[in-house]
Amino acid sequence: xxxxxxxxxxxxxxxxxxxxxxxxxxxxxxxxxxxxxxxxxxxxxxxxxxxxxxxxxxxxxxxxxxxxxxxxxxxxxxxxxxxxxxxxxxxxxxxxxxxxxxxxxxxxxxxxxxxxxxxxxxxxxxxxxxxxxxxxxxxxxxxxxxxxxxxxxxxxxxxxxxxxxxxxxxxxxxxxxxxxxxxxxxxxxxxxxxxxxxxxxxxxxxxxxxx
Length: 211
Fold this sequence. Notes:
By secondary structure, the chain is mostly helical. It folds into two domains: about 10-100, Rna Polymerase Sigma Factor, Chain: A (Orthogonal Bundle); about 110-210, Winged helix-like DNA-binding domain superfamily/Winged helix DNA-binding domain (Arc Repressor Mutant, subunit A, Orthogonal Bundle). It has ten helices and two strands. It has a two-stranded antiparallel ribbon. The longest helix is centred in the middle third of the chain and has 29 residues, at about 80-110.
């Protein structure tokens, strides 16, 4: 188990912050190293709030350290304790990571091909759900695709498969959830949610290909 150095006292923290701002280059570098090392326990503490997400804890701590370094670089000693300010910076850095991963994961899934149009071009789930229309003909075709998707989801998917897709992609008024959040809501594992999602998308893809 990784052990961390004891946190700085208020007086020690003020001393090293002052050296960082007012000392020579060597003093400033040493002070910054100390501020980082003595606040690693804080990074781990904040990262543990997200221990149920699908990310490696070591990676989370590494990203949290970026937030800590940003906090040290921008801290105003006249506005309280560094530790308090660093908590917010670490938390913000971790949230940015998770939001970025969630957005990327969603985009990858939504752009999986699920069929072809009349000209042989691939149709993606994103095309069916969110495509912007340019004219009446396209609008009618889009509406038909959406209706077809809804029909296929009702006819071809089990109730659980349908529920998972609705929650996973935030369809028709549902809030978009991660696989872990869906698993927690339904009382199943994240990996099981992933398998059901993949199977459901496969069914839709097959039906779209059949025309």
